[in-house]
C-alpha cells in the first residue's frame, strides 16, 4: 500500500508538472514603445510574464501610435491577430469591440476587484462597452507637462521659468545663447498634443471642457479660445525654423543636452531623462499645466486581447492581463515609464520629484480631465491633429483662420 501510495503521489506530481508545462504559451505582443525609456519600461512587463512560465514575443512597431495603430487594427480585421496589443484606453478599439473581436475580461476583472482599485474610475469606464470590460489599463499618462533644461537657462544667464509666461520672456536670451527655445518633433500628434496642453494652461480647465466635452460652439468661436490660438501662434515662433527632427524623444534629447530650453510633452518624457541619468530639480524641471493650471488628463495605455480559438492562448491572455495590474508590476513598470500607476494601493516611495507632483495633483478629483481619446473618435482626432500641424508649419495661416477651421471640425464631431 505504501508503494502504491508513493507511485500515486509521484504520478500526481508529474501530472501537475505537465499541466504547468502545458500552460506555458508564446504570446505575441504589439506596442509602439521603442525609445530608450519606453524599452526599459516594457521590459518590466516582458520579464514578469516570462517569469510566470509563458513567453513574451515582442512585436514592437517603430514609430508613434499613429504609425502603429493602423497596422494593429489591420491585422486584427484581417484575421491575423496578435496575442495582446497596446492601445490607448478610450475610443480607439471601439469598433473592434463592437465587432466582437476582443476578449471579454469582465470575469477576471470582477474576480480581482479591478473596480475597487483602478483610479480614476474613468480609466476602467473607457475599457467598458455595454457593461463589459475589454481592456486592462496599465498607467495614467498625461500630456499636461512642460519640461525645461535647467542647464540651458544657466547657460543663457537667465532664471529658469516657473510658468509659460516666464518662459516666453526668457526666450530671447536663449536664442542669444544659441539655444532653441522650444523643441518639438514633426509628427502631427505632437503639435496636436501641444495645442491641447496650451488650451488647458492658457484657457483653463473649464474652457477645455467647454470645447472638448460640451462642444460649446459659442466658446469654440469665442474670445477666450482666441487667446489660446494666439499663444499657439507665439509658440510656433519659438521653435527651430529649420527643424528636421521627427521623433518626440529626439526633441526630448535636445532638452536633455541643453540644446533646447523646453519641450511640451507628456510625462512619458520622464523615462528619457531617467535613462540619461538626469534628476528632476537638478538638470531639468517639470511644469504641470505649463506652471499655470496644475491638472492632469487621464490619458494612458491599455492592453487589449484579440479573440482566438485556442484555449491555451486565451488562458495566457488572462494571465498577462492579471500580471499587468498586479501591485509589484504596476510599480516596476510605471517607475521606468514615468507614468502613474492605475492602482492607488501601491508603494511608490521611489517616485521622482515630477511623479510626486503628479500624484499630488491626482489627489483632487477637480484636477482631473478626460483625455482627447476619451472625448473624440479617431477620425476627429486625426482632423484636429492635421489642422494643428498645418498651422504649425505654415505661418501664413492666421490664428483667426485656424480657430474658424477648428470650430468646423468640432461642430461635426461625433
Compile the SSE list and pairings.
Blueprint: H1 2-23, E1 26-31, H2 36-51, E2 55-60, H3 65-77, E3 84-88, H4 94-98, H5 106-112, H6 114-117, H7 121-125, E4 128-129, E5 132-133, E6 135-137, E7 145-149, H8 150-156, H9 164-176, E8 180-183, H10 188-203, H11 205-212, H12 217-220, H13 223-237, H14 248-256, E9 260-264, H15 269-275, E10 284-288, E11 296-297, E12 301-304, H16 311-324, H17 327-337, H18 353-362, E13 368-369, H19 372-375, H20 378-393, H21 399-411
Parallel strand pairs: 1-2, 1-3, 8-9, 11-13
Antiparallel strand pairs: 3-12, 4-5, 6-12, 7-9, 7-10
Helix pairs in contact: 2-15, 2-17, 8-9, 10-11, 10-13, 10-20, 13-21, 20-21
Description:
The protein has 414 residues and is of the alpha/beta class. It folds into 2 domains: 26-141 and 298-350, 3-Layer(aba) Sandwich (D-Maltodextrin-Binding Protein, domain 2), CATH 3.40.190.10; 145-297 and 376-411, D-Maltodextrin-Binding Protein, domain 2. It is 53% helix and 12% strand. It is built from 21 helices and 13 strands. Strands 2-1-3-12-6 form a 5-stranded mixed sheet, with helices on both faces. Helix 10 crosses helix 13 (223-237). It is globular, with a radius of gyration of 23 Å.
